[in-house]
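Sequence only, no structure available. Ideas?
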Amino acid sequence: MGAEQPVVTSPIRRVAVLGTGLMGTSVAAAAARAGQATIGWDLDPGTAARAAALAGFESAETSAEAVRDADLVVVCTPIPTIGAHVAAALTENPRAVVTDVGSIMGSVSREVTSRTPPAHLARFVAGHPMGGSERSGPEHASASVLDGIVWVLSPLAATDPTAVRTLESWVEGLGARPVVMSADRHDRLVAFVSHLPQVASTALMGLAAAEESDEPELLLLAAGGFRDLTRLAASDPGLWSAILLANGEQIAAAIDATGS
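Reply:
I predicted one. Tokens follow.
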């Protein structure tokens, strides 16, 4: 797997984060907490400015500016845009390790492979920190979001082993636990433990809302169990639409398994 000579020759001292929502800002804050110079960029300059003020990192005007001098680039943009940002970062900075925090790995890895010259693929490792919440935006971010969580890493066949080891060490330094597995296995497992619960929560909340039109006191009777089961329904619908579309086959299989 990977090139004969390692493509990563220095430790991670400078981190670029592309996308400063909940997870991007949390990653930036954790990197800054670990003593790394951190720079962030977001398509929305207002979001980037708020995130930088909250998490104490430098804000870049463009994504190219953010990645230029980075040792590590972490792409935290919406799933439909991850592949393009990863490919651009790999090309614009020929020495940085590049990863992402997407909830889906198979489709992202395939898109990165199709968009990126083969020589640059040795520095890409797909990633998914298994943390966060139903809330969104930098206002709800914190370095503590990453404390103790599992952070899945899925290298390509072309990924240099040195890039994987470098990223594992960095993840541990942020307080998380790196776990390496294939992209397809990751997507199958998270369909059961992450995506299916989201579908069930949203469906239950939708059913209760429909029933409430005839029974206005319905939610007055809802206790802690109902609130626990429907908490995920408050998640960003745009984010989850992209996740469900990207992992639809595995989620459908998980739903089918519940009736077997």
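The chain has two domains: 14-181, 186-258.
Hope that gets you unstuck.
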